[in-house]
């Protein structure tokens, strides 16, 4: 009888440990990440990234490794935290986002203004020239 009560107590402690561990992870990790991103799940998430840049002189395609890795990590994080959110990939770094409905969405910019036209347009709108 003593052995049976010990086994039942260990099972209960194990289950409670899993429940409290999951709750602690939610409070320590998921809530702060959601507070940082503040994504509205009803709107689209548009990721504008500068990726493949063809070089016609050498018949190659240059892929920025950092931008590619950042894109993969951010998409995985958004899909894990907001599974119902629609993630749209803006594929053309030479063309900025044009439509107002796109700019009213959550926009994630990957890549600087040198290689990503959407980033260049947003940075120009945020810091207008001070001379002239």
Describe it.
This protein is of the alpha/beta class. The chain has two domains: 1-38; 40-132, no CATH class. It has helices at 2-37, 65-81, 100-103, 117-126; strands at residues 44-49, 53-55, 60-62, 86-90, 106-110. A three-stranded parallel beta sheet has the order 4-1-5, with helices on one face. A two-stranded antiparallel sheet has the order 2-3. Strand 2 and strand 3 (60-62) form a beta hairpin.
Structural class: alpha/beta
Looking across the biggest beta sheet, what order are the strands in?
4-1-5
Order of helices and strands: HEEEHEHEH
Separation, N- and C-terminal Cα atoms? 89 Å
- What average pLDDT do the residues reach? 79
Tell me what portion of residues adopts beta-strand conformation. 15-25%
User: What is the domain tally?
Assistant: 2
Number of helices: 4
Note poorly predicted spans: none
Sheet with most strands: 3 strands, parallel
Give helix % range: 40-55%
Number of strands: 5
* Radius of gyration, in angstroms, nearest whole number: 23 Å
Q: How would you describe the shape?
A: elongated
